[in-house]
Amino acid sequence: MSIEILENDRVLYMGKNFDEGPLDINCLIEWPSTITIKLGNKYPDDTNINDAGIVINDKSVMLEKVSINNFPLEMQVMEKLVDNIIYWGFNGEVKMKFTEKNPTRWLLRMKNKFELPRLTWK
Questions:
Q1: Do 1 and 46 touch, CB atoms closer than 8 A?
Q2: Contact in structure between 93 and 39 (CB atoms under 8 Å)
Q3: CA nearest 34: which of 80, 82, 99, 84?
Q4: Nearest 5°: CA angle at 111, between 29 and 66?
Q5: Which H or E run includes 97?
Q6: Cα dihedral sign for 106, 6, 64, 24?
Q7: With contact defined as beta carbons under 8 Å apart, do 35 and 29 qualify?
Q8: Distance (Å, rounded) from C-alpha 91 to C-alpha 18?
Q9: How many Å apart are CA 92 and CA 117, to the nearest integer?
Q10: pLDDT value of position 122
Q11: Average of per-residue pLDDT across 53-77
Q12: What DSSP string describes 22-80?
């Protein structure tokens, strides 16, 4: 499977035939922006189904975490960002729209909770 990540028309990441397991991609974007994730090179033989119709293994990509300015997005916000699809086992593309000029305003508009460490003094 291959992944290409673009900000508008600027390529942020290109990769193919990557190893199984987490793939950490870090990139800087301009705000506002549209991120496009293009998935390709998946073939029918890449999905194995047993006689009961259960998927045994499948080449896919799963979005597990998105952080903006080191603040992780809550799962509900992440799902809104990608139209409730965080598991991608298809050839095609997914768009993420960051509509505000400021990342903090976008996080607040999306009602993302901020977990801040508390300092304690003795």
A1: yes
A2: yes
A3: 99
A4: 40
A5: strand 92-98
A6: negative
A7: yes
A8: 16
A9: 39
A10: 64
A11: 88
A12: ---------SSEEEEEEEE---GGGEEE-TTS-EEEE--EE----EETTEEPPHHHHHH
